[in-house]
Amino acid sequence: MEFSLVVSDLHFGDSRCSLHSMKTADSLISYLQNYQPLTEIILLGDILDLQLANWAQAMEGRILKGPKKRAVGFRYFLNYLLEKTGAKKIVYVPGNHDYRIFDYHSLERHLITPLREGRKLSGKISFFRNFAKSFLQGIISVPDAKIEVIYPHYTMRVNRKRIILTHGHFFDPTQAFNHEIGKVFSGRDPLTKEEIRKVRHAYFRRVSLYQNVVSGFSMKRELREWFSSLYEPMTAFSTKFLHRKHKSFLTPAMKRSLEHYVLYCCRSKKVDGVIFGHTHKPGKATLEKGPVRHVWNCGTFLRESSHSPMGSFITICNDGKSDLDTAVQVHKI
Questions:
Q1: N or C: which end of the chain has fewer CB within 10 A?
Q2: Does residue 67 register a pLDDT over 90?
């Protein structure tokens, strides 16, 4: 029996991140004592908030506003988590707030390395990539622990079932200039593989463009602070009202987008479950129809209101026999 830990939307760099406090980190470690051995940690995006903070603030814990000028950073937290749990494998799937991590890896692979080696540039870029040798390896001080960056989703087998894990920002039309992936493919005649590839590539280019526009604004400190002044009350409003409006964490639009993503953006159409983040609302759903039967959201460690829990996360038990509904559990602390 082995366990995996899945977390999303930690938002290191945002002053509301509960993991800036060791109290929350210790509560998480204490909770995980019941889920051993923990062999794998999966980070589903928005781990670093590079839209509201710079790299140093998010990575090293230098917060420039709020009652505390100094806090726990992602570097310290990740190594602390590895030391206490004994996990050796880390998978990082970037989201929208840390999309630059995918961007930088892509630039290195498609631009910097070819030029350094004297090769010609192809002018092409793939949005489906595994980066086994990541520059993030440099932040890990625990021996034998390895980190891999994968985008846009990570695939794993759980008790002979196939699940995909992703941040899920591309299920949200606002992250692609109001283009919904659930509608990009729907209503069309049967598409050839080449046509599917072109539509898919165009959609991910649109997502990439949106993220780079937002990232461009956040490069300047004054603009980051202005964006933060809008983002924080907006997310607080969303938590208080919009999440209450929908009894389920899975809205009809997100369900439609998720199903089309599985059909057109996964190599095998046989996907038994999807785990995602982005919405900051933890939960699970069992679907009676469609290409996916099980969906989970691991929530967030961003305290958007005084009523928010310190954090939420998912554990996956790979014991070779449990069904997915039992193997995948959502927790709050």
A1: N
A2: no
